Amino acid sequence: MQITDVSQLIIFYNLFHIAGDNIKPFTPEQAKEIVMSLQKPAVFCNMAFDWPVRHWSVSYLANLCRGKRILFRIGTKDMGTVPLFETKCSYVEATLEEFLAWIGSQPSHSCGPFKGYDLSKYWTYADYKYIARLFEDKPEHFQDLVWSDFGFEGRNGRDSTLWIGSRGANTPCHLDSYGCNLVLQVQGSPVSSSRIGSLGLRKRWYLYPPEDSSLLYPTRVPYEESSVFSQVNVVNPDLRRYPRFKKAQAHVITLDPGQVLFVPRHWWHYVESIDPITVSVNSWIELDADHEARVEEAITRTLICAIKSAETPDESDSWLNPTEVEVTSHETNLQYLNEAVSAYLEHQKTSRSEHRTRGSHDTEDILQDPCKKRKIQVNPEPNPCESHLTGIKTKNFEKIPFGSNLLQVLPQSQGTCVPETAEHSSQGLFSENEGRFGKLHNAGNTFGQGSDPRASADQKDQDLSANSPQTIISTNDLLDCVLHPQVASLMAHLLLERASF
Fold first, then answer.
1. By the 8 A CB rule, do 342 and 294 touch?
2. How far is CA 447 from CA 427, 444, 451, 459, 469, in A?
3. Mean of pLDDT values over 381-398
4. Can you tell me the distance from the alpha carbon of 477 to that of 474, in angstroms, rounded to the nearest whole number?
5. Which of 33, 412, 445, 480 could make an SS bond with 252 (beta carbons 3.0 to 4.6 A apart)?
6. Which of 26-35, 316-325, 364-373 shows the lowest per-residue confidence on average (mean pLDDT)?
7. What count of other Cβ atoms lies within 10 Å of the Cβ of residue 253?
8. Residue 447 has pLDDT above 80, yes or no
9. Kindly report the CA angle at 500 between 499 and 501, in degrees rounded to 5?
10. Across residues 335-354, what is the average pLDDT?
11. Cα-Cα-Cα-Cα dihedral of 325, 203, 164, 2, to 10°?
């Protein structure tokens, strides 16, 4: 067989060299046990060397989707210290052929919608593309992804999403409210044979543990169901505005082709393409704990839509993420909330019954639902993925088998790191916006320090009247407190307690 395409050569090299004796390091049962035991991110190696999806270079996909227009997000590479949220990006519809022409800067080809964007100043991202929709006319390609190798039987491309980006393309730092995540970095291809040294391969991940949430200044503006964003640009932070971020502990990994990253539940992550072209696929695996998370998300949707809808519209305030089609009505949101509460209570009832029947101590159950952003539906149709819970009987590894086939994602050494203190108490919660509220915040700290409370109150009044800004607290500031993940969790607990009577 004659190989004339450089990308074919790379694929064959990886298939035969990396695979070695073609025996995978973990059986599906072992891989699933590891995933269910891991509390921190890790990288699986040599588990996907024979997956057909490894052929999905952009050139291959462009041929497969010839003429099909998809939505690309475009951002500037020079964004300073402010996160570039999706509400601040530009959007164009284009084909993958036009994307390749833009990346390759081939003057003989039309770059179409990209021609107004200088490659040295902008990046573009075809992100969050449901493979079930992209290949709805070619369902045979769903089998190119074999998540059953990780113990999730029947899970394939129908349950996955595709991401194609240029150098610098990124996802703002956020956490996913639901489930855990498996991400495969796909073998890319060179833009041309003359640029073999610039293969489109890698992405860099910055991950932060759930206990660092208060250090990342969480916000629900812009609002997107299931995503809590950080107000910090984690790769170029403004430490004067967000001083506590210097205590956050980044876990950094550069994901290479063929590697599968496991992102545990509620781990924050910022993802950036570091090569000219990157292709990756992922699948969100919904967990048993997501029943309560859906109640929290329904509460969040109800409150943010009610409060922002009551506010005088401001064209500069793009609070609804482009992934959200519309602002749902209060009546609809209450229906979502009631459905979420009912589903949670029914799940609790079923779980207690199953537990009594099994009489065992299985690990946390998994729901076989691929969609990260599946909203609580009103009068939903039966979903075969939710008809039952799949109990995982595991040895619950005493020691995770880390080594050449399972890599730890270790904390990055930070010279600015300050020893951890009791940050996650109510004090940490209510000092989220330190330095943002001017005299109001500072005056509040003088109370109860051994002085006369009346004198302190008088002094506060003088301070506020002498030098008060016109607007001290905005609607978004209020929402950052009201919809803080810890507050949403507390509200969900109280609501479910009330509903269970």
1. no
2. 15, 6, 8, 10, 21
3. 40
4. 5
5. 412
6. 364-373
7. 20
8. no
9. 95
10. 91
11. -160
Give the residue with greater pLDDT, 383 vs 80: 80
The b/e string for 254-271 (b: 16+ C-beta within 10 A; e otherwise) is ebebbbbbbbbbbbbbbb
Ranges of beta strands (E only) in 337-470 are 363-366, 390-392, 406-408
Q: In whole angstroms, give the CA distance from residue 395 to residue 363.
A: 9
Separation of alpha carbons 428 and 434, rounded Å = 10
How much is the pLDDT for 381? Answer: 38
Q: 139 vs 418, which has greater pLDDT?
A: 139
**Average pLDDT over the chain, rounded to an integer:** 79
Amino acid at 77: K
What pLDDT score does 313 carry?
Answer: 78
The Cα 4–Cα 382 span in angstroms is 50
Q: C-alpha distances in angstroms, 481 versus 73, 246, 428, 497?
A: 30, 21, 12, 22
pLDDT band at 388 (very low <50, low <70, confident <90, very high): very low
- Contact criterion met (CB below 8 Å) for 262 and 38: yes
Q: Name the β-bridge partners of 273.
A: 203
Q: Which residue intervals of 387-452 are DSSP H helices?
A: 426-430, 438-444
Please state the length of the chain.
501
Helix (H, G, I), strand (E, B) or coil at 93: strand
Residue 187: pLDDT band (50, 70, 90) is low
DSSP code string of 182-246:
EEEEPP---SSGGGTTS-S--EEEEEE-GGGGGGS-EEEEEEETTEEEESS-TTS--TTTSGGGG
The one-letter code for the residue type at 465 is S
- Reported in sequence order, the residue ranges of 266-421 that DSSP labels E, i.e. its strands, are 268-273, 277-285, 363-366, 390-392, 406-408
- Tell me the three state secondary structure of residue 45: coil
User: Residue 15: pLDDT band by 50, 70, 90 thresholds?
Assistant: very low
